[in-house]
Specification:
The relative contact order is 0.15. This protein has about 120 residues and is mainly β. The mean pLDDT is about 90. The radius of gyration is 19 Å and the shape is elongated. It contains one helix and nine strands, in the order E-E-E-H-E-E-E-E-E-E.
């Protein structure tokens, strides 16, 4: 199934996408040449919102307080750092918490994690 994106220049359909050197090479239905691509430079593309309760959206992590399974607060999320194994929550306390340890998220309020012993030491 191809993704449909909207913009101020109209709709584009993603025909193919492939990872390449930490970026993506994307083929669109209306962009066949380099000149076509230049006309789309800087244009903001928008995708429809996906309603999926199992998805953690990055914008919901910032400003949330992080608590462990014992209810101990370990800091507030100030950044999300890309990491090949698992993206990391960067806390104002200096702690780094892999997203794989996140159990629940209340958008921009609270994040509960099930972290291994010693993570916050």
């Amino acid at each position: 199934m191809n993704a449909h994106l909207s913009s101020e220049h109209g709709e584009l359909v993603v025909l193919a996408a492939a990872a390449h050197q930490n970026r993506f090479i994307v083929t669109f239905d209306k962009i066949a040449t380099r000149e076509d691509a230049e006309r789309w430079r800087g244009v903001v593309l928008r995708a429809p919102w996906v309603e999926d309760e199992s998805v953690i959206w990055i914008h919901e992590l910032y400003g949330a307080e992080v608590f462990d399974a014992d209810g101990v607060r370990h800091g507030v999320v100030v950044e999300v750092e890309a990491n090949p194994a698992s993206d990391l929550l960067v806390l104002d306390s200096g702690a780094l918490v892999p997203l794989t340890f996140v159990v629940s998220v209340e958008a921009n309020t609270r994040i509960d994690v099930h972290a291994p012993e010693g993570l916050f030491e």
